[in-house]
Amino acid sequence: MSNLPDPNVKFPLKGHSVTYIKPTITRPDIIVGDFSYFSDEDFGKHVTHHYDFYGDKLIIGKFCQIAKGVEFIMNGANHKMNAASTFPFYIFEGWEQGVPPLSDMPIKGDTIVGNDVWIGQNVTILPGIQVGNGAIIGANSVVGSNIEPYTVVAGNPARPIRKRFDDELIDLLQKLKWWDLPIEQIKTIIPLLNDSDLNRVKSAIKAKLSAGQ
């Protein structure tokens, strides 16, 4: 099939500062799937406190929609809290202090964002958060706890507002994993993905899964 979209194009929307993130990444500890976009340029500047010695990763799935002003704060922002002072002497020149053992630091692990996640403008995501597939995060939210798949959250701290769909449709979408299909197949099911008749969507997904597609 001709005229297929290219996930390796940096600027997929002519005349607008929108970037596909994956081809802009230069660090091995930031992993982003195809077609996830950022509504600005230089996504890497919005991943902060990402120090090599912590070994944490930012992992983002495919087809995520990340608005302008979103910040991913990594584990390097966490200070040692089980001592008399939280001041990080070890990162500044002149104090000659070694980095504390990582086991003594409040490391939260990798930050993982699923597929087809919509993150609103000026959202802050704290270290070690896991965001499920299909989640929506409202603008200006501060995310400090994990988000279940297909859940809408908002606020500071971000709290669940509602599930986007009933459990049956969520389970079907999780099984379909449309974002992992070849581009040619995704193009053919876009009408299904854009259909707001959810009962019809359920029936179509069931048929596809039964057919092994």
Keywords:
213 residues, alpha/beta, seven-stranded mixed beta sheet, four-stranded parallel beta sheet, 15 strands, 18% strand
Strand count: 15
Percentage of residues in helical conformation: 10-25%
Question: What is the structural class?
Answer: alpha/beta
Poorly predicted regions: none
What distance separates the N and C termini? 18 Å
Give average pLDDT, whole number: 94
Shape: elongated
What's the story with the biggest beta sheet?
7 strands, mixed
The oligomeric state is: single chain
Reading the helices and strands in chain order gives EEEEEEEEEEEEEEEHHH
**Rg:** 20 Å
Share of β-strand residues: 15-25%
Largest beta sheet: strand ordering:
1-3-6-9-12-14-15
- Tally of DSSP helical segments: 3
Describe the overall structure.
By secondary structure, this protein is α/β, with parallel strands linked by helices. The chain is built from three helices and 15 strands. The protein has helices spanning 167-176, 183-193, 198-210; strands at 19-20, 30-32, 37-38, 47-48, 58-60, 65-66, 71-73, 111-113, 118-119, 124-125, 130-131, 136-137, 142-143, 151-154, 159-163. The strands form three sheets. It has a seven-stranded mixed beta sheet, with no helix packed on it. A four-stranded parallel beta sheet has the order 2-5-8-11, with no helix packed on it. Strand 14 and strand 15 form a beta hairpin. Helix 1 packs across helix 3 (198-210). The protein starts with 18 loop residues before the first strand and ends with a helix.
Summarize the structure.
The protein is an alpha/beta fold and 213 residues long. The chain is built from three helices and 15 strands.
